[in-house]
Design goal:
Layout: E1 2-4, H1 7-19, E2 24-29, H2 35-46, E3 51-56, H3 76-85, E4 90-92, H4 96-99, H5 118-121, H6 125-140, E5 143-148, H7 152-164, E6 169-174, H8 194-199, H9 202-215, H10 221-235, E7 238-246, E8 260-268, E9 271-278
Parallel strand pairs: 1-4, 2-3, 2-5, 3-4, 5-6
Antiparallel strand pairs: 7-8, 8-9
Helix pairs in contact: 6-7, 9-10
The protein binds adenosine monophosphate.
Adenosine monophosphate binds at residues 29-30, 36-37, 39-40, 147-148, 150-151, 174, 176-177, 184-187.
Length: 284
């Protein structure tokens, strides 16, 4: 496995692989890798990638001024070792200047699906995500890409971008990987104190209650939302949103008829956690 830092080098190895007839897989991350990220690597292989690149870049553009950019965990040596053990071919770990050299002035923006849920509470966040992922896709070229549906809205936004811009990327989404007790794996979980780690389970308790209610026939979004809101309100310090939305457009719905997602974002001390389920599909 090779750790690459130069964008031009990433392009060169991907071009070379394709010339040799190999399919390239790409897994974009911000590092601090856990089992959820490693599952994406395996999925890239399952989807036909003979060569896999994991990108590791804590992208400043996607953090708001009061968010955790400076304290986001940076664990490149451990990440590279985990990638190597998983059979990754290349880790692409550029520094900030390599991605955004002086004079950088472009932005990729998706409208609509970015304007609800996370978009309300993290203004500019998705512009940062789409800009960096568009750059990564530009460097990697024709490839299969794998993302986690833990970041459900991000997955929707990036699929929209790939379709709209005719990027030569085959997109795949992976179900959320969880701890045995149900907590969604997240690099941000390491911010939690032992006491907060226990309180964090209120999210999955609420999601399970809502799923049970959905399975029993409940189709009113307000009722389903309240089943998550109650435990999360009791255990967390602040809720950003608990919302049932159309699973594709993420628009609010009056009644669950087609596919719908139930998504939540809430703060526990200085840590913000998100989670979601597609009703009738995901069973945390
Ligand atoms: P990040 O953790 O922001 O670096 O995310 C990198 C990729 O890993 C994104 O596609 C995430 O959706 C995905 N991811 C993060 N956590 C999980 C998880 N628990 N299960 C599956 N995918 C995940």
């Amino acid at each position: 496995m090779e750790v690459l830092h130069e964008p031009a080098r990433l392009r060169a190895v991907c071009d070379q692989a394709r010339r040799a007839g190999e399919r390239v897989g790409v897994v974009p991350t911000m590092g601090a890798l856990h089992a959820g990220h490693l599952a994406l690597i395996d999925e890239a292989r399952r989807r036909g990638a003979q060569r896999v690149v994991v990108t590791i870049f804590v992208n400043p553009l996607q953090f708001g001024p009061n968010e955790d950019y400076s304290r986001y965990p940076r664990t490149l040596p451990d990440d590279a070792a985990a990638c190597e053990a998983r059979g990754v071919d290349w880790v692409f770990a550029p520094d900030r200047e390599a991605m955004y050299p002086a004079g950088f002035a472009s932005q990729v923006r998706v409208s609509g699906v970015t304007e609800v849920l996370e978009g309300v509470f993290r203004p500019g966040h998705f512009d940062g995500v789409t800009t960096v992922v568009a750059k990564l896709f530009g460097l990697v070229g024709d490839a299969v890409a794998v993302f986690g549906r833990k970041d459900y809205q991000q997955w929707c936004v990036l699929r929209r971008m790939v379709r709209d811009l005719d990027l030569p990327i085959e997109m795949h989404g992976m179900p959320t990987v969880r701890e045995v007790d149900g907590l969604a794996l997240s690099s941000r979980n390491r911010y939690l104190s032992p006491e907060e780690r226990v309180r964090a389970l209120a999210i999955v308790r609420g999601l399970r209650a809502a799923i049970a209610s959905f399975d029993a026939g409940e189709r009113d979004p307000r009722v389903l939302e309240s089943m998550v809101r109650a435990p999360v309100e009791a255990a967390f310090d602040r809720i950003d949103y608990v919302a049932v939305a159309d699973a594709d457009s993420l628009a609010p719905i009056e009644r669950v008829e087609g596919r719908a997602v139930l998504a939540v974002a809430a703060h526990l001390g200085r840590t913000r956690l998100i989670d979601n389920v597609v009703l009738g599909e995901d069973r945390p």
